[in-house]
Hints:
Elements: E1 10-11, H1 17-25, H2 27-31, E2 33-36, E3 41-46, E4 69-74, E5 76-85, H3 86-90, H4 96-117, H5 133-137, E6 152-154, H6 161-172, E7 183-186, H7 191-196, E8 206-207, E9 216-218, E10 221-225, E11 255-259, E12 264-277, E13 289-302, E14 308-312
Parallel strand pairs: 2-12, 6-14, 7-10
Antiparallel strand pairs: 1-12, 3-4, 5-13, 7-11, 8-9, 9-10, 11-14, 12-13
Amino acid sequence: MARNTMEAWLREEQDSQVIRRLNQTSVAETRFRALPMAGNIKTEPRMIDMDVSVIAKGAAYGEDGGANDEVALTARKFGRALRVAEEDIDDNIADVLTAKKEGWVTSFGIAFDNAVMGTNGAENGGTIPFTSIYQALKTTNAATGYTAGQNVLTTAGVLSYDDLTDLAALVEATAYHNPAGAAYVAHPVVKGLIRKLKDANGSPIFTPAPRAGDPDTIFGYPIFWSMGAVVTAAASSSQAAVPGGGAAGATGNPLIVFGNPDFLLVGKRSGPESVVIDGRDGVSALTDETILKVRARRAFVVAHERAVALLEITNI
C-alpha cells in the first residue's frame, strides 16, 4: 500500500497564538541568550578576559597568556504525534489542530525549562537532553576554574531573606555580573514564600509588577516564574514541586536561579513547527485519522558557571 505523502513542515510565525503561548510558558526560550543554529552542532567562542598590569617607563609590556576555548551546543528534538479523527476535524466543532498545537507548546515550554534548569544527572541526549544549570553547577570544570558546588545553596530551613541575598551575592561578586540584565527565575510554588519575606524595616522585598506584562521584582532585579524550575531525574512537563521538599537532589525540590542570561545559551535550530498528514491517504485512510506532528529542535549550554547561581529549596 502506498505511503502517505507528507506536507511540508510549517514553522509557527512569531505572532501566532502558539508562539505567544510559548513565550508565556518558557523563561529559557524568551529570556536567555538565543543563538540561531544552521546545523545540528554549533560552537560558540568563550573568551578569557585579558589581565592588566602597570608598566614602568621604557619597560616591556607583559604578554597575556589567557587561553580561549569554546562551548558546544547540540540540538535535541522535542516532539509528539497525535491522531485526530477526520470527523472531529470536518464537524468544525472546534479548531482541534490549533488547540492541540497550543497544548503541545505549553508542555514543551515547561519541559524545555526543566531540561535547562533542573535535570539532575549527566547529559545523555534523551531523558536528559542537556547539561542543566543544576548539573553544571554541581560539576567541576577545569576549563573555567569552577569547583563543584561553588555557586549552589540549599535552604537550611524555610526560605529566608538571607537565602535570596546570599544567592545574588554569589554572582554579584564576579566579573560576569551584569546589573542591567541579571534576573531571578523561580518555581511558582515559592511565590507565596517570597511575598512573606521582609527587610530589617519590615517592608516586603517582593514588588509585584506595576503593569501587565512587566516582571515582578526582588531587590530591584526582575523575577520570572517557570514551572520547569524543579529538580527532576528526567526532563518533564508534569513534575510538580513536592510540598515538604526533600534532601538535596531529591525529585520535586523547587529551584531559584539567579544570574546573567547572556551566559545561558539557547540554540534554536528549528520550530516550533508542525506537519499534518492527511487521513485520506496511506495507511491512516483505514481508520479515517489525520496525524498531527509537532516538534522543535533546541540546544543549551552554560557558557560560564560563575555567571549563574542556584538555590535548592529543601523545605517548603
